[in-house]
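Open question from group meeting: does this chain pack into something compact, or does most of it stay loose? Before anyone orders reagents, we agreed to write out a predicted structure and look at it together. Recording both the input and the output here so the notebook holds the full record.
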Amino acid sequence: MYLDALKFLDVPAGLNETDGPILPLYAVRPDNLPSRLSDLPNSAAAQASLLGFSGEAGRVLRLSDHNGALAGAVLGLGNGSVFAGFGNAATALPPGHVWRIEDNENVIEAAELGFFLGAYRYQALKTKKTAFSSLGNASTRSRIVAGSIMLARELINTPANILGPAELAEIGMQLAARFGADAEHIKSEDLAARYPAIHAVGAGSSRPPAVMVLRWKGSTAGLTAPLVSLCGKGVCFDTGGYNLKPGPAMRLMRKDMGGAAIAMGLAAAIMALDLPIRLELRVGCAENSVSGSAMRPSDILYTRAGITVEVGDTDAEGRLVLCDLLAEACEAKPDWLIDIATLTGAARIALGPELPALFCNRDEMAEAILASGRAKDDQLWRMPLHDSYASWLENPFADLSNVSSKPFAGAITASLFLQHFVSKQVSWAHIDTYAWNDSSRPGKPEGGEAQTLHALLGAVEYLSI
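Structure tokens returned:
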């Protein structure tokens, strides 16, 4: 099956937009309902009274013209966020129409993103597609951000029998071609020599590992423009290897490439907005399987950095993928280095599924990311790179173990492992994310989620000023 994930960068492509007229959409809250309705035709207030419309979240009041045809609608926002209020719109409004947000008193970008993202569903493998309404007057920026998030969602939602390591790397190559970036698709012997740890992670699968590297420069970026380097964990399916996961824990492991998907979506947004920076993107693509050629517990691996690692647990493979990518990324001395990964269950135990963990070796960089997350309603929580736990990774047979000797602080020790492969001079952030919505909420349907993409985009824009 051909993966057409990049179509989402052409938002509203794929959202069933019609060629009909653009209809006005008014948004109200319970406390401003009377004043808002007074600005509309008299029939609106009468209809609201007749139908008991009070502006509650997700409820729609349809407006008709003198012939009884649909002429517009009033959307209730309730008392929640603008994003959530408009996240109900596409499913609450009658399908097959194009709308424009009228007289909006709220944050327009949040409204537009809520509308677009609420209309996303993974439908590539559905024989019967669900139609939604669409938005006809959104800003270019909102379309770019929404499309980049939907690209990441689509990749995460695609099952592993369709999206393997080669296919994920190829999507990266297509992304590079779309924006005129330089790119490499590294595989086979070249991969084993350049990224030995990634090669070891993917050795157990009949689908060999690959790495995709993209390099791009904004049209107004000079040779000294900030260099932002992104690294994404792209484990397309994770069985746990010989340390096999139990069945329920394996159920969602197609999302174990969520970090790669988010990094690719972020790169797409940066390039589409033509930010004045230099950009590098590295995606490590592998499948962690069980076979006679798979890595074993107690194997000792070489890494690109020359550091040897004993495999204490084959289910701690994500950090082995990232360590080679981080080591190579540091060779270019980036101003910011960011890796994104669905790395540990420990981060989910600590913070739950909705709040990704941020580890960062520079306070200024960390605050830029956190502040952007607060502003974009895409929050993270900073956790410590606590040096006292570093000794838990010491190993009598190799330079490091890939897992801690103690059953505590798993997200922290995973971050400390990665820190060994990052130059001390480089400003580095590691994001441990869930990349999934366990249930549907307004603007956030069940399935893959591009957590932190919007926050990171805002932070990169701050760096580029």
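Observations to bring back to the group:
Residues 13-18 have pLDDT under 50 and may be disordered.
The longest strand covers residues 227-238.
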